[in-house]
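Input/output pair, single chain:
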Amino acid sequence: MDKQKKPSKKEEAGVSLNADAFLKEVEDNFEAWSEDATPALARMGSLSSGLLERVFSSLVKNKAEEIYPFFQSILGREEKIDLPLADSLGRWNSPEAGILLQRLAEKSSSRAVLKNVRKSIFRLKSQGLEVDEIRDVSPAVFHPGQPIPAEGFLSALDGAGTRMVWLVRPQPPRGVAAFHALITDSQGIMDFQAFETSRKKFHEYVEEFRKQAPWEIVEADPEYCLGLMIEASELHSKKGETPPGDFLKWKTLMGSPPAMPLRPLIHLYLKEEEWKNRSDLLDRTGSLFENPSFQIWYLEEEEARKYLTLVKEASESRLVLTPYQKEGRVMEIYRQAVEELFTRERRAIFRRRLEEMAFVLWKTGKENEAQMSFVAALGMETEGGILSIHPFLLELVKRSLTALLEEEAKKQSKESDLLIKP
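Output:
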């Protein structure tokens, strides 16, 4: 039998450094995260179980008097976090540890978590603490089912700011109410549907949708998903319109809306101050279009038509120009398009779109591209780097006009073939 490979000293040192860094972050945010655990849970979601166990054990050892509210705020939320938390609580020789373990057992339905809870309770009792055993939580005929948590899902955006959003709320006795909206950041809610189903069937529906949709679909904070729908509905209110479907009918049953304006979820993972001056990444943001999620981003044909005409005139000019001069003239047209099309208001729209895309990329494991999208978003307000025009916008204009030229060439080729044939 092959022996499990032990981590190298270099790997162990890396884990230790990461644990120390996150431990410092927890200590700096004790009070805030004890009141609202959402940022803490978001950060922990990207960390390994081993690293979390190191952090929790260190807190138990060195911060015992301060950690109770923090542990209470995070327990029972995610199995990945509950497993190392339950194990670490068994090393805290305190009545508070027994209380937290009991509460964790009440909140979690995971057998693995409950197994760790029992082990930790046994460990505490062996140290002389009086801790009650947890009750048998196996389902019985007359026991109500475990409450189903709310869930949220959202898709990537296309070039027009269109995306899909789902919100799922528990619906007694055992089902869920699912809300699905197709929204845009310019027109609001394009379509809205609400239906009752089981949690299992909803997940099957999302998986099937994910296979067929051209967009990435990721899980997201349900309150944020509700906020996106509310935000879209406000665009209708400003225009004196009514959102489509039965949105207003279902609105009160969808939960309490979060505070507005919404802060994009990527800010839970990346700090603006650390990334806003990364001109090295900003200069490379045009490469984002190599990602499938950005390959459907184009300018609207109507707004690009003026610049398409200018590019064609430059290419077909009768003036004697060197290839270099023609290339320079075309580049001037691209820059002109960026300056004229992307006003301050429109840049704000694109900043938000890129922040939203950064979150989707982060959730799908594309951290480098997520960072680049985030930098591109921040660069909408303060440009910098080698290029004087925002590289992402410049590439968006270039690829949009190139696509239109290629489309026209294909059309002319087909027309020419029809004329030649008898």
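The two ends are 76 Å apart (CA to CA). The mean pLDDT is 84.
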